[in-house]
## 1
Amino acid sequence: MSASRGSGRPLHALVTATQFIAASAALAFVVLLFVNEPDSGAVSSDGSGSDSGASAAGQPDGATLYADNCARCHGPDGGGAVGPQLSEGRAAELFPNVEDQIAVVANGQGGMPAFGGNLSPEEIQAVVDYTRTL
Amino acid sequence: MVGHPNVAGAPPTSARTGLLLGFGLGAAIAVAFGAYARVHDPTGESVVVLFFSGQIQLKAWFATVAVALALVQVGSALWLYGKLGGPAPAWLGDAHRLAGTLAFLFSLPVAYHCLWSLGYTADPTLDRVFVHSVAGCLFYGAFVSKVLVVRSSGLPGWALPVAGGAVFATLVVIWLTSSFWFFTTFDGPKL
C-alpha cells in the first residue's frame, strides 16, 4: 500500500459504496414500476383521465380531477402554491364568466399549462365547477 | 497496410460486437422505457416530496442537481483525457465516477414519477412535453450505452465521447424542458 494509493482509498471506497447503492436503487426503480399500485384509480394511458375522476354514475368527478391535475400547483385545498389561490371564491372572482376559466384550463395562459390535450371537455367542465365550490 | 481489414478505418470484429452490444442495448432500454410509459396507466400521484413544497419542486431541483453533477462529469472527463492541459490528479477518476453515480441516483426519483405517475406524451403538438418524453427515454438508453462502452476495450476512439455526449445532451434537453421551464414559467427557483 503506497502512500498515494492510500490517500485515494477513502474516495474509492465511497465510489464503490455509491455504485452499490445506485445499482440497488436502479433495481428497486424497475421493480417498483411494476409492483407499486396507485392509491386511487389510474389515469388512462392516453391522458384522457377517463379512469380517474369518474364518479360512480360515470360522470367526471371534479374533486378527483382537481387532486390529480391541479392540486400540485394550486394546493390540495385550492389555497394556492405555484398557481394562484382558487378557494374561498377566488376562482369566481378571477373568472366571473365560467367560460373564460374553461378556456384557460383548456388552452393555458401564462404559467398555466394547457389541459385540453389531457382532459375531455366534460372533465374540464367538472374540474372548473369544482374549483368554484372550494 | 493494403488488404488489412481495418484499412478503411472499420473497427475489428470484436470492437464491432462491442459497439453493437453497447449501443444496441442502450437503444433497447430507451424503447423499453418508452413502451412502459406508453402502456402503463399513469397514476397521477405524488411519490416522494421530502422537504420540498411539492412533487414538481423536488423534481425540478433533483434534475438541476443531476445536470450540475453531469457538468462535473464532462469537466473531469476532459481533464482525464488531457483536454484541459496539465496532468489529471490521481483522485480525479474516482471523483468522475462519483459525480456520475450521484447524477444517476438523483435522476431516479424524477424518472420514476415521470414514468409511473405521468406517462409518455406522444402528442407532437405538445412540444415541450413531447420532447421531454422522448429525451427522458433516450437518456437511460444513452446512460446504459455509456456504461457499457466505458467498460469495454478496443472500441474506436469516438465511441466514448459519442456515448458520453449523448448522455449529457439528453440530460440537458430533459432539464431545459422541465426544470428550466418550471423555474422560468412559475415563481422562480424556490424549494
Note: Chain B touches chain A through 37 residues (CB under 8 Å).
## 2
Amino acid sequence: MITMLRKTSWSPYVVGSLIGVLSWFSFATVDKPIGITTAFEYTAALISQAVSPETASTNPYYTAPEKSPKIDWEWMLVIGVFIGAFISSTLSGDRSTDDVPDLWRKRFGGSVSKRFAAAFIGGAVMMIGARLAQGCTSGHGISGAMQLAVSSWVFVVALFLSGVGTAFLLYGKKGTNHV
Amino acid sequence: MFDEPSKLLLGLLTGIFFGFLLQKGRVAKFPVIIGQLLLKDWTVVKIMLTAVAVGSIGVFTLVSMGAAELHIKPAMFGGLLLGGLLFGIGMAVLGYCPGTSVAACGEGRKDAVVGVVGMITGALAYVWFYPRHQPILKSFADWGKITLPELTATSPWLWVLGLLILAATSAYIFEAIHRRSTPRHT
C-alpha cells in the first residue's frame, strides 16, 4: 500500500477511474458535482463586497438567484486539492521548485518575470472564460460531461479547439519535439 | 457566510483525494498540459475520458435510485463559446487548468501560484463586469439545462454504454500506438 502511495505516477486509467468513483462519492454524500472555479468566483464576490459595499449594492450579481457567495463545500474542495497534491508529491519526492518550466524556457527564454507575467495573464483570461461558461475542465469537462450535459460537451469541444490552436501558435510544430 | 461544518469537512476530504489523484496522474505539470494541447501527450484526455465513463455509471445509478439529482449548467451558447475560447487561450498560456493549477501549487510550482493569483483577479473582473457581460451573453441562444439524452429523446443508459465503449476503445488504441512507438528491448 505505502509503496503505491510513494510512486511518482499512476496509470492515467487508474487515476481516471478513481476520479470517476470520487464523483459517485460527492454525489452520494452532498449531491454535488466536483468543480473548482465557482469557489474562485465566490471568493472574488466576497472580496469585492468587503472592499466596496456601495459598488456591490448596485451590482445585480448579488441579487441573482443562482448566486450565493459563501465559504462552502466547493471552497474547501479547492483547499483540499492543494493539500492532496502536497501529500502526494511529498510522499513520492516529486516536488518542483523551478520558476520556469523547461519547455517554456526553450521557447521563450529563462526570464522569470516574463514567465510570471504570462502565468498571471493566462490565469486571469482562463478564469474569465470559465466563469462566462460556468465551469472548467473539472466542472464541465469531467462532472458535466459525465452527467451528459449539452452545455459541458459544447464547452469541452470549444476549449480544446481554442487551446490546441493557441498552443500551436505559441510553440509551433517544433514544440512537439520538446514535449 | 459558511456552510455546515459536516459539508465543509466532506468538501475538504473530497478535495484531498482529488488533488492526490491529479498529482499522481501527472496533470499538475506544465509539459503534460501543453503536451496535450500540442496533441503529443494524451494523458489529459485519457484521464478525462476514463473519469467521465466511470463516473457516469454511478451518477445515473444514484439518480435512478432517487439518491441524487443531476446538477448541470444551462446550454447558453454565448457564454459557452466565448468562455471556451478564452479558457483555451488562457490554459495554453498558463500551462495548467484551474484544478491542476491548485494541484501544481501543492507540488511547489511557483508559476502556478502566480497563475492562481491571476485566476482570482480574473474572477474579480467577472464579478465587476457582471452587469456589462450578462446582457451580451443572454442575447445568444439558450437551450436551458438540457442533457444529451433529453435532447435526442433516448435513454441515458444508452449514452453511458456509449461512453464506456468510447473510453475502452480509445484506451486500446492509445496503448496499441504506444507499443508500436516504443522500441522493444530484446
Note: Chain B touches chain A through 124 residues (CB under 8 Å).
